[in-house]
């Protein structure tokens, strides 16, 4: 039966092509294409082949493959775009870093005039730079500051070298320029007058009132001295020295309270450092590695409290702590 259909189809194809080839070439071409397809199907069916089915099924698979490729391309495009966005965002974040944030810093508690201030400062800043920051917080000029942390804070060393840690309390003592000008009798005037008087006098250690103490000789338990050097105040009291009456005396510098404690066997006198008008010092003849020092507790020389056999390396530190570096001495 399929053979008969094939013969009839051939006869029809020849007739149509003969009639329309000259008048309708396009129609003849369309019919030829349709004929070839039908002929292929008939022959494949006759032979029992499945090539036609496979061919017709291949096209949807091909279309499906093209669709998957399109989806894959779209996914890759989105991934690439997201990666670019992430890179841009990371770049933006990296470029926004502040160089100062990379410095190691330390949190400090600044205490001045019964006020407390929080300060965060790079640990590699020097004592002088810390004073500048304190100035911005308090209005107290650096030259008029006494900054204390386990003694008077050195200006030329970094906070790291001084071993200042997080949460450390920094004590600041000093008066603003207005406060200094408001004082009736400025300390610097008294000190200049005392210095002028001292220049006119014979050495203190030769005066009778001092000779009676010095002639007793150097105390056995006096602290060792180092001539020609300057050291910060020790963390322990200065002891083993004599006072004007020849009794043993010790000096304790209470920096947190801004007080000087003068202790004897009988009692301990707590003197505010701000009330000390002047500090006078002189080497002891024959023992130049030791000094005699007087703390002027009132407006005249009659209020001077004398201490003998003070180790030379601590004399400047004592003056700095009591009067401050901005004073004249």
Helix content: 40-55%
The geometry reads as rod-shaped
Strand pairing plus helix content: what structural class? alpha+beta
**CATH class bucket of one domain:** Mainly Beta
CATH superfamily of one domain: Pleckstrin-homology domain (PH domain)/Phosphotyrosine-binding domain (PTB)
Output the strand order for the largest sheet.
Answer: 8-7-6-5-11-10-9
Radius of gyration: 51 Å
List the total number of helices.
Answer: 9
State the CATH topology of one domain.
PH-domain like
Overall pLDDT confidence: 76
- Number of E-state strands: 11
| Beta-strand share of residues | 15-25%
Low-pLDDT windows of residues: 49-63, 86-97
- CATH architectural category of one domain: Roll
Largest sheet: 7 strands, antiparallel
Layout of secondary structure:
Layout lengths: L1 H19 L4 H23 L3 H45 L9 E8 L2 E8 L4 H12 L7 E3 L10 H4 L5 E6 L3 H6 L4 H14 L7 H7 L23 E6 L4 E7 L4 E5 L4 E5 L5 E7 L2 E10 L7 E8 L3 H9 L6
Parallel strand pairs: 1-4
Antiparallel strand pairs: 1-2, 3-4, 5-6, 5-11, 6-7, 7-8, 9-10, 10-11
Helix pairs in contact: 1-2
Brief sketch in words of this structure:
By secondary structure, the protein is an alpha+beta fold. Among the domains are: 105-181, Roll (Ubiquitin-like (UB roll)), CATH 3.10.20.90; 204-323, Roll (PH-domain like), CATH 2.30.29. It has 9 helices and 11 strands.
Task: Write up this protein.
Helix content is 42%, strand content 22%. The strands form two sheets. It has a seven-stranded antiparallel β-sheet. The protein has helices spanning 2-20, 25-47, 51-95, 127-138, 159-162, 177-182, 187-200, 208-214, 315-323; strands spanning 105-112, 115-122, 146-148, 168-173, 238-243, 248-254, 259-263, 268-272, 278-284, 287-296, 304-311. By secondary structure, it is α+β, with helices and mostly antiparallel strands. The radius of gyration is 51 Å and the shape is rod-shaped. The chain contains nine helices and eleven strands. The relative contact order is 0.08. Among the domains are: 105-181, Roll (Ubiquitin-like (UB roll)), CATH 3.10.20; 204-323, Pleckstrin-homology domain (PH domain)/Phosphotyrosine-binding domain (PTB) (PH-domain like, Roll). Residues 104-173 form the Ubiquitin-like domain. Pfam families: PH_UBFD1_C (PF25343), ubiquitin (PF00240). Residues 62-83 have a biased composition (Basic and acidic residues). Residues 62-99 are annotated as: Disordered.
């Amino acid at each position: 039966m399929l053979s008969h259909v094939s013969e009839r189809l051939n006869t029809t194809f020849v007739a149509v092509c003969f009639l329309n080839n000259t008048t309708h070439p396009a129609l003849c071409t369309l019919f030829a294409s349709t004929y070839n397809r039908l002929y292929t199907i008939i022959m494949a069916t006759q032979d029992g082949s499945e090539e036609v089915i496979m061919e017709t099924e291949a096209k949807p698979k091909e279309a499906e493959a093209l669709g998957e490729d399109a989806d894959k391309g779209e996914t890759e495009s989105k991934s690439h775009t997201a990666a670019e966005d992430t890179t841009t965002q990371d770049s933006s974040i990296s470029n926004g870093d502040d160089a100062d944030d990379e410095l190691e810093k330390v949190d400090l508690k600044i205490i001045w005039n019964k006020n407390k201030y929080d300060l965060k400062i790079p640990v590699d800043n020097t004592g002088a730079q810390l004073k500048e920051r304190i100035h911005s917080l308090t209005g107290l000029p650096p030259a008029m500051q006494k900054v204390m942390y386990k003694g008077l804070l050195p200006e030329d060393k970094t906070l790291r070298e001084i071993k200042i840690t997080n949460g450390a309390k920094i004590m600041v003592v000093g008066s603003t320029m207005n406060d200094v000008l408001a004082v009736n009798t400025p300390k610097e005037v008294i000190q200049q007058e005392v210095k002028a008087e001292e220049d006119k006098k014979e050495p203190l250690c030769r005066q009778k009132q001092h000779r009676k103490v010095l002639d007793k000789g150097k105390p056995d338990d006096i602290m060792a001295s180092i001539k020609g050097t300057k050291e910060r105040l020790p963390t322990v009291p200065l002891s083993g020295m004599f006072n004007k009456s020849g009794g043993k005396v010790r000096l304790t510098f209470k920096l947190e309270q801004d007080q000087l404690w003068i202790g004897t066997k009988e009692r301990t006198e707590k003197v505010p450092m701000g009330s000390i008008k002047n500090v006078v010092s002189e080497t002891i003849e024959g023992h130049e590695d030791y000094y005699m020092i007087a703390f002027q507790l009132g407006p005249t020389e009659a209020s001077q409290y004398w201490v003998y056999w003070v180790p030379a390396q601590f004399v400047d530190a004592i003056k700095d702590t009591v009067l401050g570096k901005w004073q004249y001495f």
